[in-house]
Amino acid sequence: MKSVEYPSRYAVRKRYAQRVAFWLFRFFSLFIAFILFAILGFIIYKGAGVLSWDFLTKAPSDGMTSGGIFPAIVGTLCLMAGSAVVAFPIGIMSGIYMSEFASKGWVVKFIRLMTNNLSGVPSIVFGLFGMALFVKYLNFGDSILAGSLTLGMLSLPLVIRTTEEALKDIPDSMREGSLALGASKLQTIWRVILPMGMPRIITGLILSLGRVSGETAPILFTCAAYFFPQLPTSIFDQCMALPYHLYVLSTSGTDMAAQQPIAYGTALVLIVIILIINLLSGALRRYFENRLK
Amino acid sequence: MKIEVKDIDFYYGSFHALKNISMGIEQNKVVAFIGPSGCGKSTFLRLFNRMNDLIPDTRLTGQILIDGKDVYAPKVEVDVLRKEIGMVFQRPNPFPMSIFENVAYGLRVNGVKDKVFIAQRVEETLRGAALWDEVKDKLKASAYALSGGQQQRLCIARAMAVSPSVLLMDEPASALDPISTAKVEELIRELRKELTIIIVTHNMQQAARVSDKTAFFYMGEMVEYDDTKVIFTHPRKTETQNYITGRFG
Ligand SMILES: Nc1ncnc2c1ncn2[C@@H]1O[C@H](COP(=O)(O)OP(=O)(O)OP(=O)(O)O)[C@@H](O)[C@H]1O
Ligand SMILES: [Mg+2]
Fold this sequence. Notes:
The structure holds 2 protein chains of 2 kinds. In chain A, helix 8 (185-214) packs antiparallel against helix 11 (256-292) and helix 10 (242-251) packs antiparallel against helix 11. In chain A, a hairpin with a 4-residue loop joins strand 1 (60-61) and strand 2 (66-67). Chain A is built from 11 helices and 2 strands. Chain A is 75% helix and 1% strand. The longest helix of chain A is centred in the first third of the chain and has 38 residues, at 10-47. Chain A has a two-stranded antiparallel ribbon. Chain B is of the alpha/beta class. The radius of gyration of chain B is 18 Å and the shape is globular. In chain B, strands 6-7-8-3-9-10 form a 6-stranded mixed beta sheet, with helices on both faces. Chain B has a 4-stranded antiparallel beta sheet with strand order 2-1-4-5, covered by helices on one side.
């Protein structure tokens, strides 16, 4: 056989192209870090000045030109908890159903289609719908309840999808092993499948909390109070919320010079809360992973 | 007869995977299923504990009787049946729990609560699976910390803990090294004193070593079923002869 004639120095060119590509990919990947640092840096630069113990623990005062943002922090935490109560059980159960019970029939296709469409609905539309259904029709008024229900609906698709995908990835050998011992399907899910899916489910839940904490549109007409310095005492109370407070201060303020720093401070607190949640999610994930080892 | 199979036909969709199979299996015997890949051994094995129920769009005709009772009768409760008919899989599949909890699992899901009894039973079955000495000091450790061979013996212990009367084994040693394989085979010889065992294997020598009877399958049909000695020395059918000699070289 004739031997192949390879172009000269081809190997060198390949290696060169590879190195260039590597750096390009790396550069663009690092871009994401740049964006995050830019935003963080900007917010810290503008907002760190107003941070103080009083800022975190006092209500706004003097027409929101001084004082703190405590009611908004509490309100946002309430809404996160409320939406979790709404979305987590429904979402996790739907996700389990989609992965474990439904066969490939039309029910699953239909639910998946609906889930995907729901996650594409703009959040302001959720707000409108929540107002019509919860605030007006069910007569909950502007309240933490109405806001939580609206935010819960908003985060359902994410919870359903992450649960479903977490469980789908668990090998069938685990299910078969359990069923072969006489366990029922429910026992199999409860004792083997859910614990194995937990690390990823938790991650999805926490992501949804992070998303909820930052949403303004869904609570605009369902819950958020422009100014409500006392703390809410029941789920039928309105409350302040960090993203909405930020919005109010920056758009309909009365004294821009005094309020702008407060707005940046509010943004900083919001971002820090979300960062803390994300760190927490990592820790929880590791905790559940370790339990499986 | 412990197990009687009568005129079984099985379909995946329109694919005819098992064709008109009938056989009888006596109590406390080890029966080996051999045959080329794709001939239907696993499919057949999974009919005994109704594992194929999990696969959509399948169809079965014929009867499987265990202790004279029809496994596929409408009133049969599948989880009760599966407690009676244990299964060990090709790849060790311990649960992500401690060694102890793995063995206790079958008892717990069947309602046993008595802690003392469970602890005794776990020890007993781990001893039975020749694993006790290796794990007795780390029962709380994860099952994933064991070697593949140990994991497979753990799975055997797990299956034995609910005291089944039949044990189905689908190539239980194919993922194991020779030493672990020898241990599993030793175990099978021990276990047959207590129960009836059906084992699928690709390893002729293994079939010859552990089984009393051997069934040879080819393209969904059971070509020959006889005493293991006969199958490996004077098979009646040429297909069996070819398969066995091909493998023995
Ligand atoms: N879930 C399924 N759906 C459709 N066809 C299947 C399914 N499982 C197995 N089959 C087909 O049925 C036939 C028998 O498969 P089976 O797994 O029983 O073979 P086997 O003898 O166990 O082979 P191996 O020795 O490779 O494990 C094969 O042709 C296979 O493609
Ligand atoms: Mg097989």
